[in-house]
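Quick one: structure for this chain?
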Amino acid sequence: MAHATSVSIVPHTRARLAGQLASLGVERGGVLMVHASLRTVGAVAGGADAVAGALRDVLGPDGTLVVPAFTPENSDTSTQYHARVRGLDERQREAVRAAMPAFDPATTAAPSMGRLSEAVRRALGSARSAHPQTSFAALGRLAGQVVADHRPDCHLGEDSPLARLDELRAQVLLLGTGFGSCTAFHLAEYRVPSPPRRTYRCVVQDGGGRRWWEYEDVALDDSDFAALGADFARSDHGTAVRTATVGSGTGRLFRFPAAVSFATRWLPAHRGAHS
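Got it. Here's what it folds into:
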């Protein structure tokens, strides 16, 4: 009788990932914003902490690692909230809203951002911006500079870490993800003429308690970012998009200002055509 044989999966190591990231072009001493899907990267010995370690190994002691630490879970105007309460009656929706904790930059988790973002957010020495919906976490020499002065009514515009990353000519790494996750493109939404705006609402701290806070900001829309990214990768700017295998997935590396510059021209042409 034939017996099935099991295939053991050898996990990727921190050292191997670091070597692949260096070959891809991650700059030693640079500033790097990362969006990651660790499921796509595959099994890694040491998990998300080892991936964060590999990134910091390549960046070196003078480098800075930045990740999104967004918290749509404490808002009743987010797509996550609307999905969560679909089919509930008003009493049940109110119970969900009442249970939402106020945002605390020191302790509030960012579960929808993935394991790498959480590993960076929880790491010793991590700094986090104070926006109650679209905060960023950072480690390294310029971490405090990147996350400082994130205005609470400016998600991802000129008073957010994205503008600081643009000024610092940071690199962007899409690690196992596509351009649909490219937060850099959101900065371009603020730089097009007369961007549409909308109302947002979330729970914030109020002394020792909590309160709902409502504010107006640019209407963020990532629904066409995959198409935008595909055009960026095919453009002259896109010649700077470097692609290589990292772990079991694909890493895409490019310069932050190049992506924002291309998106600032692309968005009015393409969204205007369908408005």
